[in-house]
Write a structure and sequence with these properties.
single chain; 230 residues; Arc Repressor Mutant, subunit A; 2 domains; 7 helices; 10 strands; 22% strand; elongated; disordered C terminus
């Protein structure tokens, strides 16, 4: 099937951009001296951006202001949540991620692709699942989202081992979902954006229930603060 869009990338493009973009249906990617999008016989300048936190919807609107008026901003990432993708669309930013989601928009054209569960070349692995104990730890974090948590305090409030609390906090830190202050014994972590954390939970399979997918998202809400210990 003939491509409807051709994207030319130069050496300054993010490392994963060629593979992610080439996996999109009816999109051709080639190397060149600049970053451009060719569609309907017209060439449009691109600014290809990487490094956006996949759950940080608060940063999406700021990206449009970093680009020049005559260049289409195109965010490329391994995984972007629905909330971030919608925020990018509202800000006038195009995007593509490793799940197959894409939104290419410019003067006189729009290419929008929703992700599908089928794996393609260039797609990323699904996020690792969470056990029921780890889910409980995350729920406790959400009950006091503005609190700065130590590993000890979180383990005590969630009724889990220090190792489990540390593992969950480390996972969330790696995902960019918590902010860290202090070092060693004074280290504390706090949830950056509760909505981003809930979006992330919706993408992660959890033990004790069916894996989440595009048609049946995992729905988790903060627990009752008055829950019994256990």
């Amino acid at each position: 099937m003939k491509a409807v869009a051709t994207i030319e990338l130069d050496d300054a493009a993010p490392e994963r951009a060629p593979a992610i973009l080439a996996a999109l249906p009816r999109v051709e990617v080639r190397h060149g001296r600049s970053q451009v999008l060719l569609v309907n016989g017209t060439t449009h300048g691109l600014t290809v951006l990487g490094g956006i936190a996949p759950y940080a919807s608060a940063t999406a609107k700021a990206l449009a202001s970093l680009t020049k008026p005559d260049l289409i901003p195109l965010v490329v990432a391994d995984r972007l949540t629905v909330a971030v993708r919608r925020a990018l669309e509202e800000a006038g930013c195009s995007y593509a991620d490793g799940t197959g989601a894409a939104h290419l928009e410019g003067p006189g054209f729009l290419i929008h692709i929703d992700p599908t569960p089928r794996r393609r070349d260039g797609a990323i692995d699904a996020p690792r699942g969470l056990g029921v104990v780890a889910v409980r730890v995350v729920q406790v974090l959400l009950t006091e989202a503005e609190r700065e948590w130590s590993v000890t305090d979180l383990a005590q409030d969630a009724g889990v081992s220090l190792g489990e609390a540390h593992k969950v906090l480390s996972r969330l830190d790696a995902e960019g979902l918590v902010a860290t202050t202090g070092t060693a014994k004074t280290r504390r972590r706090a949830v950056r954006q509760p909505t981003d954390l809930l979006d992330w939970l919706a993408t992660v399979p959890s033990a004790g229930g069916p894996p989440s997918d595009a048609s049946s998202p995992c729905r988790l809400s903060p627990p009752n603060p008055q829950r019994p210990d256990g």
